Automatic annotation (TrEMBL):
UniProt cross-references to SUPFAM superfamilies, sorted A to Z: Actin-like ATPase domain, Winged helix' DNA-binding domain
Family indicated by similarity: Belongs to the ROK (NagC/XylR) family.
Annotated HTH marR-type domain residues: 18-68
Gene Ontology molecular function: kinase activity
InterPro entries reported in the protein's UniProt record: ATPase_NBD, HTH_MarR-typ, ROK, WH-like_DNA-bd_sf, WH_DNA-bd_sf
Pfam family, one: ROK
Organism: Microbacterium trichothecenolyticum
Protein name: NBD/HSP70 family sugar kinase
Length: 386
């Protein structure tokens, strides 16, 4: 959509991308501030902003500056009518939303599922919501694509979900199905990798360059790593499967699953069971844990936090991140007493790797995976390859 490249002008295309990326990721900026941020001169910025306006990617509004000498520089902001659809299928529900280029969650719905959804059913649900929203919140939207955040390894080369075991998907071509159902370009990624991207760009890891992210959902625990500002994909794009590691459990009494992996021991299902719930989102779980007086429920929280602390310490020792971000039900576990969890991680991490280390819960909350999926769409549709 940044079209200067069609005229063979690679430098201009890169500069258009730079300006658009700046206001998208850093927020509205005056032309003067864009000049400073990009290093481009004022006349070049004016020309680029004009082209982005004509392409329907940015809008300008009057500056709020009052009492200044001279004409105030107009404020450049992403056009909120540019929108990406996003979907996150899980074992108990499908979350579908629309995220605008200015970061607004325009609309989102959680559709509870009585049984496991197939890839075809997910595509059908997205198409149904799109049809409804076209007559309402997306009536004036320019939809540039649809992104899917899936709880399982996704092959980077073609977006095929190799296996989403809790959903029962194997070699699922969900991207093709979404594209056929909506008529939009589709982009598929691992849910934790996309959640990490969202928190890195807009949330708890903003400003950090080395990040470990763990996401806890109904399907288990996924993860992602960002090194030097670059997502660590691995040879096939499958890096970050922390939930499949064998956990270190010091007290045998803490083990619930013989020879289980981390996600077998640190489990949303166990937490729901402890507070007597059959289902519910993370907000419902957090409220139930906060209000319970049942000693057994508190004991389960403490057990899972002990195992999680060891897993996080292992990650800190191996990867030396600046920040570890926890999302989903892991954020619920952490927020129960973040300071104590931080201390438990530090006691098992070599001192050098604790210097500057910060433990944080995801700031984007329930929107993090949809925001990450939308970002994958924007990156592919609006910014040229670097």
């Amino acid at each position: 959509m940044v079209t200067a490249g069609s005229r063979g002008d690679g430098m201009r295309r890169a500069n258009l991308s730079l300006v658009l990326r700046t206001v998208h990721r850093e927020g509205p900026r005056s032309r003067a501030a864009l000049t400073e941020a990009t290093g481009l001169n004022r006349s070049t910025i004016a020309d680029l902003v004009g082209e982005l306006q004509r392409a329907g990617l940015v809008v300008e509004r009057a500056s709020d500056a009052q009492g200044r000498v001279g004409r105030p520089s107009p404020i450049v902001m992403p056009d909120p009518r540019v929108v990406a659809l996003a979907v996150n299928p899980e074992v108990d529900a499908v979350d579908i939303g629309a995220i605008s280029l200015d970061g607004t969650v325009v609309v989102r719905e959680r559709i509870e599922q009585p049984a496991l959804v197939t890839p075809a059913r997910v595509a059908e649900l997205v198409a149904e919501r799109l049809s409804v929203w076209h007559g309402g919140p997306l009536a004036s939207a320019r939809i540039v694509g649809v992104g899917a955040a899936v709880p399982g390894p996704v092959r980077a080369a073609d977006g095929v979900v190799r296996e989403a075991p809790h959903l029962g998907w194997i070699e699922a071509r969900i991207g093709v199905m979404l594209a056929d159902a909506t008529g939009l370009r589709a982009h598929v990624g691992n849910d934790a990798a996309l959640g990490a991207l969202a928190e890195y760009l807009f949330g708890a890891a903003r400003g950090a360059h080395d990040v470990v992210y763990l996401n806890g959902g109904a399907s288990g625990i996924g993860g992602a790593v960002i090194v030097g500002g670059v997502p660590l994909g691995g040879a096939g794009g499958y890096a970050g499967e922390f939930g499949q590691n064998r956990p270190g459990i010091a007290d045998a009494a803490d083990r619930r699953a013989p020879d289980g992996v981390l996600e077998d021991e640190v489990s949303r299902a166990f937490l729901l069971e402890a507070v007597g719930l059959e289902g519910g989102d993370d907000a419902v779980l957090a409220a139930a844990l906060a209000s319970t007086t049942d000693p057994a429920a508190h004991a389960e929280v403490d057990r899972q936090r002990r195992i999680l602390a060891t897993a996080l310490a292992n990650a800190a020792n191996v990867l030396n991140p600046a920040v570890i971000v926890l999302g989903g039900f892991l954020a619920v576990l952490a927020a129960h007493d973040l300071e104590a969890l931080d201390a438990a991680v530090r006691t098992q991490t070599i001192p050098a790797c604790t210097e500057g280390l910060r433990l944080a819960v995801a700031e984007l909350g329930e929107d993090r995976l949809l925001v990450g999926a939308a970002e994958a769409v924007f990156e592919a549709a609006l910014f040229p390859a670097r």
